[in-house]
Design a protein that fits this description.
Order of helices and strands: HHHHHHHEEEHHEEEEEEHHEH
Helix content: 55-70%
Shape: flat
Radius of gyration: 32 Å
Number of domains: 2
Number of strands: 10
Strand content: 5-15%
Length: 515
């Protein structure tokens, strides 16, 4: 009997060793293929995509500098233009080197360079030369024809097509790496299955030395869901070592979970830091806001708001939402908010702000966009100017009734340049206007229009503004799957009467740092 058990044990061991060697050979081969794919292909296209983005940014700076110089004849506008001329050639040379083995990408890059050269030599340089020679009017007239914009838009389109090709190449290579990694996973699964079969064959003979220790380890692993549990194993050295490895892995998973939580918290703090930390007081207006982050497992969103006085008795407010989650959405949110702030300081008309924003922002793909609603409150005329880029319309709450403002939204920001128009809305005395992001009213399985209608019915418009906004939030529930911004604005009637009686005084806080 002892010999028989020995032979069975030897056969099981030999089979296991053979399977392990074969699996190791296949696994190493697949791993090397995945490593080669990731180091050769991905390390080519990822830097190429970043350099192409840099090239587009440099070209945009050149075009802006050329146009600014033609319009103003001020030499300082030529600085980004001249800097772009110096760096464009280097970036193009690096892209040619990176894409040397990709014939299609080389052709698209050649098209980009050709259209850039056409724009530079047939439009930009002649325009600058006209201004430098004193013929600025001719240059301005040429600028108004739109030919330069058309040439640059064609250049931008070529860059976009090259970027799409690079992105598709990157996705393709990433999928290949994932498929190889998946093959390794299935190989590991196969090894486990073979080990189980071998265990069944030697079950009766090796039960005391193998099966019971494994079952003990299994029970310990299942019990490891408790935070204070420790995985322990007994029996042969191999099984005991396995228990130590599983315990190490359990601790590592717990540490990684904590790191992910801390990372989310850091990004959340960063997002909140980009929003106004404290709201200033604007004489003549009541203003309050709430920022409610989504559940931690959802991720960071791109909701934001802006507030700033733009003239005596006038207040500019905007609320926006960037599609997507994570650090990328937070970064896009910051750039949009700063741009809106800058545009509003020059011309606070909401339609003008959104029009300029749509010309500035190009996310480069149809799955990236931002919605924005912008308003200007006039305390003296008791009037609201509002324009929307795909955003939910504000609520108007007053003693005469509560309703959604009738604002026809234009396309979201980032899809294409668009001209937006402002709509003038008269405000009843003591009326409250509420601007909000879609996180306030969007719920899975519920109709959006019904949720918005509910908001107009659950609050008393004459309540103090803080209580009114909190009431809206409570009415929509706490199960949030998206970040939420809520802003409420109310014109102070007493301050308005003082302004009408003494219009020269002006009572809005005009400190631009408050936005």
């Amino acid at each position: 009997m002892r010999r028989s058990i020995s032979r069975v044990a030897f056969a099981v061991t030999a089979l296991t060793v053979a399977l392990a060697v074969a699996a190791a050979v296949v696994g190493i081969t697949l791993s090397l293929d995945a490593e080669r794919a990731s180091t050769s292909d991905l390390n080519t296209y990822i830097p190429a995509g970043e350099k192409l983005n840099q090239l587009l940014a440099v070209m945009v700076d050149q075009e802006s500098g050329e146009r600014g110089y033609v319009i103003t004849a001020q030499a300082r506008f030529l600085q980004p233009y001249l800097a772009g001329e110096r760096s464009t050639g280097q970036l193009v040379a690096e892209l040619r080197h990176d894409l040397a083995s990709d014939a299609a990408a080389k052709r698209l890059l050649h098209r980009v360079v050709t259209r850039y050269t056409v724009w530079l030599h047939t439009f930009a340089q002649p325009q600058i030369a006209d201004v430098q020679s004193g013929d600025g009017k001719a240059a301005v007239q040429a600028e108004k024809t739109g030919r330069g914009k058309a040439l640059f838009d064609s250049l931008r389109g070529s860059v976009g097509r090259l970027g799409s090709l690079i992105n598709s190449r990157e996705v393709s290579k990433t999928d290949r790496v994932k498929s190889l990694q998946q093959a390794v996973v299935w190989l590991v699964v196969g090894i486990v299955v073979c080990a189980v079969v071998g265990s069944v064959i030697g079950y009766r003979l090796l039960r005391r030395w193998i099966t019971e220790p494994i079952r003990s380890l299994e029970r310990s692993v299942l019990a490891a869901s408790r935070e204070d549990a420790v995985i322990m194993a007994s029996g042969p050295v191999e099984i005991a070592s396995l228990g130590v490895s599983v315990e190490t892995m359990r601790k590592r998973i717990g540490e990684q979970g904590l790191e992910l939580y801390e990372h989310r918290h850091v990004v959340s703090v960063l997002q909140e830091a980009l929003l106004p930390r404290r709201l200033p007081k604007f004489e003549g207006f009541e203003f309050t806001s709430r920022y409610l982050p989504a559940a931690i497992e959802v991720g960071i969103g791109g909701d934001w708001f802006n507030i700033r006085p733009v003239e005596p008795h006038r207040l500019f407010v905007a609320v926006g939402d960037v599609s997507g989650k994570g650090v990328d959405a937070a970064a896009r949110m910051a750039s949009l908010r700063f741009a809106v702030n800058a545009f509003a300081s020059e011309n606070p008309d909401p339609g003008s702000v959104l029009t300029r924003l749509s010309r500035l922002v190009n996310f480069g793909s149809t799955d990236r966009f931002a919605t924005v609603v912008a308003c200007v409150f006039d305390a003296v005329d008791r009037e609201l100017l509002v324009a929307s880029a795909g955003h939910l319309s504000p609520l108007l709450l007053s003693a005469d009734g509560s309703s959604v403002l009738e604002v026809v939204p234009g396309p979201p920001i980032g899809l294409r340049p668009t001209v937006y128009s402002s709509v003038a809305v008269p405000l009843p005395p003591d009326a409250t206007v509420v601007l909000f992001s879609d996180g306030l009213v969007e719920r899975r399985g519920e109709r959006l229009d019904e949720n918005i209608e509910r908001l107009t019915q659950v609050v008393a418009p004459q309540e103090p503004l803080e209580q009114l906004i909190d009431g809206l939030i409570v009415a929509t529930g706490t199960n949030r799957t998206d970040d939420t911004i809520v802003c409420g604005v109310r014109i102070s009637e007493a301050a308005r009467e003082r302004a009408v009686a003494n219009p020269e005084a002006g009572y809005a806080n005009r400190n631009p740092g408050t936005s």
